User: Fold this.
Amino acid sequence: MKYGILDFGTIQKDSNAISTIHETIEMTQMAEELGFSRYWLSEHHEDNLAWKNPDLILPLLAGYTENIRIGSAGVLVGLHAPINTAYHYKLLANLYPSRIDLGLAKGKTEVHKSLELVDGGDWKKNMEDFFNRVKKIKSLINDEVTDIILPPKQGESPELWILGTSNSSQDFIIQEQTNFSLSLFHLINGMPSPNIIKELKEAYFKKHQKELNVNITLSAFCSKSDKRIEEIREKTKNIMLNFSGKPEYFIPFLEQQAKLYNVDEIIILNLGETIEEKQLLMEVFKTTVSA
Assistant:
């Protein structure tokens, strides 16, 4: 099994954005030392986050590490010009070869923030045009747009991931041969069925005669304190808390989820609020993680 980390960059009480970013760098280095497969940063636009768009933070993480894959999970496609996304991640993929992931998502933010991000453009139309915009990003990265060349020409491409909570992207994933990450912690439709991955894998193999690269993403909090576990359960309202409990029960839970969804990689949204709590969750993997 492979395990990765997803980081929202939440600023905790008595901290600030810069301290949180330094903590993220430290957590990424720890993840690499422990053999984690990936460290992903999200794009969200709430006010309590150390970054909104992770594009500027990713090269820091890549520069402070050597082997672990670094990426976005994910770029909100409707809020960014495809050419900018393609340029940033193609260049990053060539500065740090075979280490960069580009996750693409349909998410949105508050209306007034969306309007600012698209600078007067029609962000609602952009969201509806998700698949065409992803195809444009992919074609720009792969030098398939004849009148636009993004440096370096014919360079390496980032690993492309479609993020989702349902099977709505299945046909696109099969056609464009992208990777897929299924979120288990979004509250949009409740817990997604394991059949989403099963059916997608079968259809992908039938079309291409090769296995689809797929993982699941879930949220987790580990503590030795029953009081802290209950506190996190009470305050976690905006997402589904997939696991909250003692460290010794975490690996068996993950193995159960891997078997249920038939995946060999799980990305973990670490809900620890202090650096000690984040480290406690990651230290569970000292003898279990394989890169």
